[in-house]
Amino acid sequence: MVIDKIKLENNITNRVNKDIESNNILGANVYVFQNGKVLIDRSYGYKTVEGKIKLGKNHIFRLASMTKPIVAAAVLKLIEQGRIDLFDRADNFLEGFNGFYIGKLQDGKVVPVKKAENPIRILDLLTHTSGLVCGDFMEAYGKQMTEKDKKNLDSAIEFYKTTCLSFESYCGNSYSPVAGFDVLAKIIEIVSDLDIEDFLKKEIFMPLEMSDTTFTPNKEQWERLVDMHDKVDGKNVSIDMKGHIFADFPTSYKCGGAGLVSTIKDYAVFAEMLLNGGEYSGVRVLKESTVRSMRLPHILEMYSNPYESWGLGVRVIKDGYPFLAKNSFGWSGAYGTHFWVDPDNKIVAIYMKNSFYDGGSGAITAAHFEEDVKNSMD
Fold first, then answer.
1. Alpha-carbon distance 166 to 83, whole Å?
2. Collapsing DSSP states into helix, strand and coil, what is residue 183?
3. H helices then E strands: how many in the chain?
4. Cα separation of 28 and 46, whole Å?
5. For 118-138, how does the pLDDT look when each residue is reduced to its tens digit (9 = 90+)?
6. Separation CA 199–CA 195 (nearest Å)
7. Domain boundaries of the chain, sorted by first residue
8. Which residues, including other chains, have CB under 8 Å from residue 72's CB and lie 6 or more apart?
9. DSSP-assigned letter for residue 8
């Protein structure tokens, strides 16, 4: 299927402008690429709630969970290098990361029921089949996690060691918003003997010239970060997230599940690298076989959604999904970022907003973006 550039431009522009006029979004950056050509690369709306600064392509967004595919790529790089294995146990690297109990909710708290039999493996963390801080346990553990626990990656890992699992590893599937990929980030640090950001710079950001993708924005990058938007009583409201990339986590906590910021330009390079089987502009970041493995479903059919599954750090589309072609893969962020790669139709599509209103993988803006791209195909 080939995208009609004029239809795409009209569909996207009409939809985004309506969302801006109704205060559903403050602004959005949109990028669609097919068969080696950029079909749309536009900024709409504003960077600030006051409407004084128009949104531009160099403005920076909080990626939230669109951090995960990047961290997953780093894990896969270590696997390529033979330094870890997909089936390695997490406790091979993290002392004390074993002896978990399966828990249940009781009066708003998680209580242990029985000792877990299966170890948590790297595969389980990448595919959200670990049972670690997910599903119904999220709210309870969110209330328990203190500022001290959120100080950095090390303190967060120590907190996760005290939690109960929702189910036996690889015997269920429930999205782990933060914990699972924090554990992966820590394993990267231990194996590489580098800070997670330094490893990402060395293996991904510098080779791809992704200079605006970081856990720790400098002063100039903070100034380019878009306002966090909310809609209250039909009006635009700015949410103060000064000094925070994700939720109330300090920048000292390089959250592997949600801690990066980036521009649409940077993320497009990363996504096109995946589309090209691990290579971009003559620079190879991952082996082609690695990217193929990344985008294949890796969880048992009985635990999979009818229309989508999990690859290694990315959602994978199956038959019957309404808007995306089978084999497409990607993910979203809690503040409204969304992307996918369609390897069969040679498409990369990215939508970036930052909003408390209608965020996450279930955001209407994400579904509308998918629909508008599909409706532009001949």
1. 29
2. helix
3. 12, 15
4. 8
5. 999 999 999 999 999 999 999
6. 6
7. 5-74+195-374, 84-192
8. 126, 181, 184, 294, 312, 313, 314
9. H
Tell me the pLDDT tens digit for each residue of 57-112: 999 999 999 999 999 999 999 999 999 999 999 999 999 999 999 999 999 999 99
Closest C-alpha among 235, 52, 248, 67 to residue 150: 248
DSSP 72-109: HHHHHHHHHTTSS-TT-BGGGTSTT----EEEEEETTE
- Cα 252 from Cα 350, distance rounded (Å): 28
Which residues are bridge partners to 261 per DSSP?
62, 214
**Phi first, then psi: what are they for 366, rounded to 5°?**
-65, -45
307: Cα separation from own chain's centroid? 19
Amino acid, res. 161: K
- Report residue 90: phi and psi, to 5°: -60, -35
Asked whether 175 and 304 are in contact (CB, 8 A), the reply is no
Terminal Cα distance for the chain, rounded: 6
Predicted TM-score (pTM) of the model is 0.98
Q: Are 374 and 323 a contacting pair, CB within 8 Å?
A: yes
Burial (Cβ within 10 Å: 0-12, 13-18, ≥19) of residue 162: exposed
The domain 5-74+195-374 having CATH identifier 3.40.50.410: the answer here is no
For the CA atoms of 177, 183, 188, 194, the dihedral, rounded to the nearest 10 degrees, stands at 100
